[in-house]
């Protein structure tokens, strides 16, 4: 019965995620068509990503003090309102870039609060026995939004223009909101009153509480370090995959699109697999084995491959393991962290792990440029190619080997293996200062 309630919430939130994905892609595509500036696109991505990432530990302090269902309702309602405002601005010819930048910042922060609240709702409704399946479905949603959002966004932008896409976006958030309203979600233990304390002090104290929880637990701390390193190499790899394929295929954009689509299909099938079978295996070994498989069967063949079939197979493998890793990782943390602390702990966890993403993206290009002059000949040039293409392949291959080694070494680490035991223990209550 409880898992049935989660399915109802998940279905509505899946619709919202798909609507948000297609709308954001359509917005970025409209910005590109309007300006032709790559700088504008990168700025839009940064203002949407960084504020929520930096503020996550402080947002978590407030998420733990309110009903997660109520907060999700406010977030869905606010996101629908933003979509309607953009419709008015676009329809009256007043939509400009600064509006999109402002929306990017607001939506990034709101979506962070929504994710923290949704994580608590999943843990509440699914229960310990249903966490693995529930997070497999959440990972499936992420994969579907990543694949179907750009496809649907591009098609709908051509059919309805931006107004139609934004109206669909608003409707999707309202569907998520109405679905959630109809489902009862336990409130949990109320937090102490904060009437006599400033919002800033509450935020700082909450971030400290989340950080203390993680640092006091070697298993969770070690696993978080592993994910930081993996996010770093994955971010570098994501930057370099496109130039490697394009330079080696003679700028075959159709092949690149096919490779990307096959990776998306792999992600959807991986999400389905996670929702069906994730509860049957131990999570830490599954995470580490999937990481190794993703690196050696996904990233490495892309780095050394020179043909479409190799890249297609590699993309499928890389996409397939991602929702399995994320679903197992999320359910492990939800099992190990008391419900009344999850937003504070998860806010810190999110910031630490994902700070590696902009760092990896910033490092990948300059490192490739530095290595290009030494790729004119020799063994490495025969394997990866010469010039910029060879350097990009070399760095991509190094990312794959590094990721696989980190996962393999972690498998031998007692502290990392202990994360499964930490998650199996009762979720102790933790007092906060």
TrEMBL record:
CDD domains given for it?
Answer: MFS_MefA_like (cd06173)
The protein's location, in the record's own words, is:
Cell membrane
Keyword Nucleus among UniProt keywords: no
| Bilayer-crossing regions | 12-32, 38-59, 71-92, 137-160, 222-247, 253-272, 284-304, 310-329, 350-368, 388-412
Any Gene Ontology CC annotation: plasma membrane
Q: Which SUPFAM superfamilies match?
A: MFS general substrate transporter
Query: What membrane topology is given?
Result: Multi-pass membrane protein
What keyword terms does UniProt attach to this protein? Cell membrane, Membrane, Transmembrane, Transmembrane helix
Query: Listed GO molecular functions?
Result: transmembrane transporter activity
- Report the principal subcellular site: membrane
Per its UniProt record, what Gene3D superfamilies does this chain match?
A: MFS general substrate transporter like domains
Question: Which Pfam family is one of this chain's hits?
Answer: MFS_1
Is Cell membrane one of the keywords? Answer: yes
Say which domain of life the source belongs to.
Answer: Bacteria
What is the name attached to this protein's record? MFS family permease
